[in-house]
Amino acid sequence: MIKLFIGSKGSGKTKNLIEMVNNASATSDGSVICIEKGDKLKLDVTYKARLIDTESYHVSCAASLYGFIAGICASNNDITDIFVDSALKICNNDVEEFKKLLKRVESLDNRINFVMTASIAVEECPDEIKAYA
C-alpha cells in the first residue's frame, strides 16, 4: 500500500510525515525506515526509526530511488513502514518517472506500508498520481 501526500510547498506534508514516522516507530513490531533528501529531519524523527539521506548514497532519480527502496526491502524482512520525504524532488521533479516509480513500489512487499510526500500542486497533479493521495 502506498499513501501519498501531495500539495504545494509549505502545506504541511513533511510535518504529517514526521508525525507518522514517530507514531509508527512507537507502535511497530518491526523496522521503520525514513528516507529523505538531505538531513533536515534528523532532529524531528525519533532515533527508533532508521533515517537515511539519499544524497549520501547518490540517489538522484526515480530509477535509483526504486533500486534503493527495493534493496532496503530485500535486506530486511522485518520492515513494517517506509517513509520517503520529498520523493518527487529526489526524482528530479520528473512527473512521468515518478508515476513509474509509484507503480513499481506498489508491486513490492504488500506487508510494508509506504508513505511518500511530493511537492506538486493538486490542480497540476496527474490522475495517476492523485490515485495514491
Descriptive report:
With 133 residues, this protein is α/β, with parallel strands linked by helices. The protein has one domain: P-loop containing nucleotide triphosphate hydrolases (Rossmann fold), CATH 3.40.50. It is 37% helix and 22% strand. The protein is built from 5 helices and 5 strands; from the N terminus they run βαββαβααβα. A 5-stranded parallel sheet has the order 1-5-4-2-3, sandwiched between helices. Helix 2 packs parallel to helix 4. It is globular. It starts with a strand and ends with a helix.
The coarse overall form would be globular
Total DSSP E strands: 5
Gyration radius from CA atoms, angstroms: 14 Å
- Fraction in helix: 25-40%
Oligomeric state: single chain
Side by side, the strands of the main sheet go 1-5-4-2-3
At CATH level 3, the topology is: Rossmann fold
User: For the record, what is the CATH homologous superfamily label?
Assistant: P-loop containing nucleotide triphosphate hydrolases
Assigned CATH architecture? 3-Layer(aba) Sandwich
Model regions low in confidence, pLDDT < 50 over at least 5 residues: none
The CATH first-level class comes to Alpha Beta
Mean pLDDT: 95
Number of helices: 5
Beta strand %? 15-25%
* C-alpha end-to-end distance: 11 Å
Q: Can you summarize the main beta sheet?
A: 5 strands, parallel
- Classification by helices and strands: alpha/beta
The total number of structural domains is 1
**Helix-strand topology string:** EHEEHEHHEH
